[in-house]
Each structure stands twice: as C-alpha cells, then as structure tokens.
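Pilot study result, target chain (576 residues):
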Amino acid sequence: MTLVIEFIRPYRRAVAGALVALVFTAGITLSLGQGLRILVDQGLATESPENLAKAIGLFFILVLGLAFGSFARFYLVSWIGERVVADIRKRVFNHLIDLTPSFFEQNRALEIQSRFTADTTVLQSVIGSTVSIALRNTLMLIGGLGLLFITNAKLASIILLGFPLVIAPILFFGRRVRALSRLSQDRVADVGSYVGENLSQIKTVQAFNHQPHDRRFFAQVSEKAFDIARQRIRQRAWLTTLAISLVMGAVGIVIWIGGLDVISGQISPGELAAFVFYSLLVGVAAGAISEVIGELQRAAGSAARLFELLQTKPERGPAEGSGRLPTSVSGAIVLENLTFSYAGRDRQPALDQVCLAIEPGETVALVGPSGAGKSTLFDLLLGFYRLDAGSIRLDGVDTASVPLQDLRRCFALVPQNPALFHGTVADNIRYARPQASDAEIEQAARIAHADEFIRTLPEGYHTPLGDAGQGLSGGQKQRLAIARALLADAPVLLLDEATSALDAESEHLIQQAMPALTQGRTTLVIAHRLATVRDADRIAVFEEGKLLAVGRHDQLIQDNALYRRLARLQFREPRA
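Predicted structure:
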C-alpha cells in the first residue's frame, strides 16, 4: 500500500481535516456514554424534572455535534477517495499508452482494461469509505476500552480477556482473505475480458453460430469467478461471526457480573448503563474492524494488480534519447544490416541483415509473401520494437538515439485496417494534428476524396462514428485514414496494404488521392497487388525476412524468380 500512500500525500490538508472530523465524531460518540450515566444517575434516579431536562439538553448538543462532524468526515473522506482514484487512473493510463506493443501482445488488453476499471472501483470504495470506517472503529475500540477501565476496572478486565480470542481469527482469516481477494479479482478480469472480446467481434460470433459454445464457456468462466468469490465470502463470514460472537459473549458475561454488583450496591445503575454502552461500542467496533479487514485485504489485492502495471517498464520511453533530427527532415532512410526477431522466435528472424537506402521523395514498394517481414519493417521504423542488430538512419541520424515522440512526428501511417475512434468524423481526421482548424480538416478530406461522402452524412463532419467507425464502408474508412495522414504532413509516408480489401470504385478513388498524398514525401508502400506498385520508383522484394532484390518492375521480372512468379500469378505474364 506504499504507492497508495504516495497518491494520498499531496492531499495532506484534506486528510488532516478528515482526521480531525473523525476524532471529533469519535470523541462525541464516546461522550454519549457519560451522558447516559448522567441521565440515569442525575436525571432518572433523582426524579428531578430539571436535572432530566439538563441531561436531555446535553444529549441533544452532543447529537448536533455528532451530525455536523459526521458531515465533514463523510465529505472529506469521500472527496479524498474520488480524488486519489482519479489520480491513479490517470497515472495508470498515461503509463499504459507508453508501453510498447510487445507488452500488449503478451497481455490481454481486455484484462488490462478490467484491472483499470474494476480494481480502481474497489480502491475508490476502500479509500473513500472503508478506511474511514476502519479508523473510526479503531478509535472507538481504543477509546471505549479506556473508558471501560475508567468506569469499572474489574469489568473491563473481563472484556480484555476476550480480545486475544478475537485477534487470533482476524490474523488467521485475514491472510486467507487477501489471497482469495487477489484470485477473485483475476477471475473477474477473465469475465470482463471474455465479454469484451465477444462483443467487439459480435459479427464473427453470430456468422459462425458460435453463441451456444460462448454461452457454455462464459458459464464456466463465471462459475469459476463465483467459486473463488464464494470461498472469499465464507472466510469473511467466519471472520465476522467469530469476532462478534466472542466480543458480544464477553459483553453478556459483563452485564451479568455488573448486574450482580448493582444489586449488591457496589456500583450505581448509571455506571452499569455507561459500561454496557461502552461494551456494546467496543463489541460493534471490533466486529466492524474484523469485517472491513476483508475489504482492506481485497483493496490490497487490487492495488497490487494496478501497481504491477505501473511497475512495468517500457522498453523505450517516449522522451528517451539524446539524438536530434534536423529541423526540416528530408526523409532519407538508410537500413544497415537490420536484424530483428520477435520474443520467443530467436531462431526465425523477422528481418535478417537487411540493407537498403531510400532517397528523399522516393517511392519504394515492399512486396513478398505474407510473413516476409514487410509490416515488421514499418513497426521498426516507428520505434515499436528495439533492433537486435544493425541500425535505421533517418537523415543520417540513428533513430535508436532519437526520442520516440520526435521520431514519430516524421511518419504518417495509413494502415490496412484503419483505426477509427469513438467521436465525430472531424475528430478522427484531426487525430493526426489535434490543433488543426476545421478548414484544414476539410481541405485534407477533399484531397483524399472523402469530402463528398462526408457531406452526405447526417451531421457532415460532426457526425458521430460508432466504435471502430461502424457504419462506414471499407473505402470510406480508408479515405478518412488518408485524410488523417495528409493532415499530419509528415516527410515520410507509410502505406500498409491501403487498397487490398477495397472494391474497384473505392480503390479508384483512393488511387486518385495517392499523387497528392505522396507528392514531396518519401513513401514506403506494402502491397500484394503488384498492379498498384508497378510505377513505384523502386520495388524491394522480401522473403522470410531477407531482402532478395531491389529494382523496377521490368528489371525484377527478368532478374528475380520470386517476383517473376508473383507477377505471373497476378498479370499472367509470359515466362521469361
């Protein structure tokens, strides 16, 4: 919980105010016992209306103080809980979006999302409520014990004898509850991950009539989560039952012994009433503490899961590096013996000693079978992974030494499956340059041949899009991605299969937008359709991570067997 304290520390004044209110309300609650003693001994026992009125007046003053103190305590503690959890969420999110894609390849994104939502909700509940309850009842317990001894030391000693019997089960069950709480949170994350995964791919689920299997599997996942939760609940229930039974049992014995002392005249009825009040207060406080310990253990599990994310170090921070690119980047790229393997696949490099020099403003097409390393090259250019060997130089500067945020400003990416976000059409185009004006957005859309279809939408550029751009065709999404890349105005353009999944009309429109998109920019194009890259300045042929040949279409037809085979399959060209 050390890191939780770190988040609370900036709000020391609010914490101090909450503690003052907490001590104040606890003090008033404890004072009610003395008020009860006065009411019995000086009000009821004396049969004096004046004394009774004074005792009742004191009681109402204490009640008003308790009410106002409780308001301050509740407001401040709840505010601290909400404030701290908001800070934790921001810290976790800011950290997550800087982690490299390899982290998300090894961890389910939806499970991480569950941690981000469910675990922070648990922390909010604990910091904004449970901690306050625990502290208040701890004060009640300590103060009540002290007043028990002040009121009657003999009876208080009897109460105290029962405390070892309460502490032992709290320590025993507390450890078990914490372990089960962590496991329970993991199972809840599994449930959330499975739901999110299926709902995000609902068309595929329904197209293959997969619902019966999903229902069965989800039932199993849910039952596993329930079984762990049931074990945790049982441990907490035993913890609470034992604590209350033992403490209240001791209170019952005290009432019996105290009653005998009142009958014999050794103590007054008011003293016994006050003692019983404090005994009940101590018993309730002990029971509440034993109950909230389970919540605190659960929060510790949630905090551990969140801080696991915070303690995950990115392979390369966004501001890491001392290299500096020129003020105006021309887009010259040099790959020197570039070698890279994915984690766990060291024996099969995704790229193996690739050497290639690309001139500023040149259009180079990357072709080859699936798995040849073309998309991996794009990932390395964007700094998503560290190189195993070799280097990438942009305008003569080693990109490994350049801060990622500076490096990525030099690239505009148009992916095969455009990533569109929840928001308006304008928001999605503006994603490349958040400060862009409406006029700049519309100009980029016109060049990308997207303006026409955008204006037919219900609210034009302000039309909200569903998740992942639901409601738009593939060609429309691709044109929005091109408009976004135009708005980025980067010196290097990366086109990843930009037209592979489109119909002829959409492909034609996008091909019309290409000259404006590539003009004055270094352009790298991944393509399986060789017809789309025949006119490229050069074509680089990849296979199994190796660069086999570089040249123009006609030259490669003559000199490279792989390219000749690919061309023959697509163009039905005669054998050379």
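One observation from the pilot: The chain has a mean pLDDT of 80. A full batch analysis is planned for the follow-on phase.
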